Amino acid sequence: MIKHLFLKTANDTPTVVMVNELSLSSNGILGGVTRHEFRHLLLLPLSTLTEFNIPPGQLGENILLSEEMERDIHTYPSGTVFKIGEVLLRITFHCEPCKKIKHLASANKILHKRGVLAQVINGGNIYVGDKIKIMETTFEPIPYALADRVKWYLNKIDNAIAVTTLVDEIGLSKSYCRAIPNIIRNRTDIDATKIVFKNRR
């Protein structure tokens, strides 16, 4: 069940606003900041806040779930579809711990407890108190590990792609561009010729 809902209206601030409802479209949260389609919403279980003694809203969650879920939300595989009212959400992957929350919890300890990201499949309104239904329909899973996600995406395309476009297409910020050469160096199963890096002068 949904315990709290939060709306973020600006990228340059960590501030979120507690609301009673969220209006969603296939582009994400109406009135909220624009997100990559794999990162429209962040769903977080109350158990994470309890374990790390963090106040609601501080981890950037949009949907805070009560303890009434049948199982930990982190155990649902990528591609699982949640129904909330008339809204359908596709679970994409776990939210990565980052430096923005290091003052709240150790990245190592909160790994795979920081919530799951979701894509809005069809829009509508969701409200505090709404229950979540797990649908039988599923989508293709998206790998969580960076190297596996890179491989997954490159296998879908025929032509070379700029590294900046690549990281954007797999739902990450451009800061990850610097990590790509290292992660593909020891992965012979990744076709590195499909990745175009900016020429160094």
Question: What would you note in describing this structure?
Answer:
With 201 residues, the chain is α+β, with helices and mostly antiparallel strands. It contains 5 helices and 13 strands. The protein has an 8-stranded mixed β-sheet with strand order 2-1-6-5-9-8-7-11. It has a 3-stranded antiparallel β-sheet with strand order 4-3-10, with no helix packed on it. The radius of gyration is 18 Å and the shape is globular. The chain starts with a strand and ends in a 5-residue tail after the last strand. The model has no long low-confidence stretch (mean pLDDT 92).
Helical segment tally? 5
Shape, per Cα inertia axes: globular
Distance between the termini: 55 Å
Mean pLDDT: 92
Which structural class do the helices and strands define?
alpha+beta
Main sheet summary:
8 strands, mixed
Low-confidence parts: none
What is the strand arrangement across the widest sheet? 2-1-6-5-9-8-7-11
Radius of gyration: 18 Å
Beta-strand proportion: 25-35%
Q: Can you count the beta strands?
A: 13
| H/E element sequence | EEEEEHEEEHEEEHEHHE
User: Into which percent range does the helicity of residues fall?
Assistant: 10-25%
